[in-house]
Design goal:
Two copies of one chain form a homodimer. By secondary structure, chain A is mostly helical. The first copy, chain A, contains eleven helices and one strand; from the N terminus they run βααααααααααα. Chain A binds a DNA duplex through β1 and α3.
DNA sequence: TCAATTCCCGTATACCATACGAGAATCAAT
DNA sequence: ATTGATTCTCGTATGGTATACGGGAATTGA
């Protein structure tokens, strides 16, 4: 085993009973109902929050691989199979971990103070999401289709939608724009975090990695076939570090995307017909 | 084993000798040099292209998990360890598979005919990339930090950069814009493909999945805490299907991003100072 | 004290990548 | 023809993964 590969678990269904998964995700809200269970049977030695915390801590410190069922159990000092009394499967545990860190983002709820400008509000979402990925880079390797529908995810969507309301787009466009923004922000923030994680875990900077591949330019690269790359290279258009390029493109892309949304909202406001599609003003 | 989890291998280093990896990636170009090897030793029964093709076919048909070393070997009718004479590790095989499908995109090279408008040129990149993800949805689960630096990846970057040259941005901004576009396009196309893949492999539509989670709205969802979501819901702002929402947001986000880039190029053209940052026109 | 209930967890199964090393095939030189 | 060098083939072993199953332990109310 080289340590150069890692396996990542991907949630892609809820096979089990969705009711139980929902109850676990929302375990700390809405407790009003029935949790008066105190009848017979052996007392539990752990609780779900403990599993989730242990899983997150392991993934943070030693990578998503370390947050295996065996790893979490060992960290908690119990047998592996004990975890299955608290959580139906690893899939659900991962859902819980994800929603937990989604909820860590400090996003103002309805009525709470927030920046005045809608763009700054979106920036806040972007920055909080970026910081979350920095703290928990393993999130980038977890599939976001069919995400955990827990308090953390819902709070994030609620906040982002609320930032776009002042633009007065159609409801449909508001939702569409929010989806486009999350797609961009989540992906770019995830890539950035993953990029830094790779540098840390391999102990090799991206620059050193590229340096190792100098043969590419000397032996294989065909200038004739790649005039644009060559031109940019000759004009010193490439950033000094991969990290700088990632940061630049993150900011640039988000700014341009918001520019475009803002312009479309202005157009829409000028002529309040249905959804528009004018590509070139 | 439930079949509800799948493991995904993540390349995050080239540990081995980068020269060999490069030679494998570029095995079909630049053959001019030395490949006159025909001295002694047992004749190979396979070739690298065969491994790559088998891996891609398995991943296409039965998921990335099926493209295990054992799986590929079985498909080729050889022992598992035989593969290691052709490829140093699974990591490299995956690199080769990825670059192969990146090269499948039909993007005009330098001098070849292409759409007149730069936006249509970017759309072509977007459509080709989207189609690639549709054909090979497993690509969405492969990390793109430290990508395979082979002909396929370079052709893609070359084409996208070339589409932006007419905008006459600074070289730095051209590169930055190209990175932002790939981030958006690759992520959104990957998400879309993965979304459809999940529906196929679980045999459950996203709508059925949401229906299973009706409890969320009835039991846990707090209208007070989520006024924006509630408003959009009441205004019928949510698309009818998850698939429709994904398609809409993909188009919308790409259009707005290109709008923003176009506007910035126009600004930059008006006042040819260095890189700008005016947020609100 | 007993039955019901709940939690704990050892063992077994079926996967995965790959290190190691023995054996088979091929060619050049003897 | 035989030998030696070289290269490809691949069985076995190691240590990792999730989790099904079922027996045992702990707790409570009767």
């Amino acid at each position: 085993m080289h340590g150069t590969l890692c396996t990542v678990t991907v949630r892609h269904s809820g096979e089990g009973q969705p009711e139980r998964t929902l109850a676990l995700l929302w375990r700390n809200r809405k407790p009003a109902a029935e949790q008066v269970r105190r009848t017979a049977g052996r007392r539990p030695s752990l609780d779900v929050d403990g599993l989730v915390r242990a899983g997150i801590q392991l993934a943070d410190e030693r990578g998503l691989d370390a947050a295996s069922m065996g790893g979490v159990a060992k960290a908690l000092g119990v047998g592996t199979m004990t975890l299955y009394t608290y959580v139906p499967s690893k899939e659900e545990l991962l859902d819980l971990m994800v929603d937990e860190i989604l909820a860590e983002r400090q996003l103002p709820g309805p009525g709470e103070p927030r920046p005045a400008d809608w763009r700054e509000q979106v920036e806040l979402y972007s920055e909080q999401t970026r910081a979350m990925f920095q703290r928990h880079p393993w999130l980038a390797r977890v599939s976001t289709v069919r995400p955990p529908v827990g308090p953390g995810m819902l709070a994030g969507r609620e906040y982002l939608l609320s930032t776009l309301l002042p633009l007065d787009l159609s409801p449909r466009d508001t939702n569409t724009a929010a989806l486009a923004i999350t797609t961009y922000v989540d992906s770019a923030a995830g890539l950035e975090a993953e990029s830094q994680l790779v540098e840390r875990t391999t102990g090799q900077s991206h620059e050193a990695w590229w340096h190792e591949r100098n043969d590419l330019w000397e032996t294989y690269f065909d200038v004739e076939r790649h005039p644009a790359m060559t031109a940019i290279w000759n004009a010193n258009g490439y950033q000094d570090t991969v990290h700088e390029a990632a940061t630049d493109s993150y900011r640039y892309g988000l700014d341009r995307l918001l520019d475009g949304i803002q312009a479309q909202a202005a157009r829409h406001h000028a002529s309040p017909s249905g959804s528009e599609q004018s590509p070139t003003p």
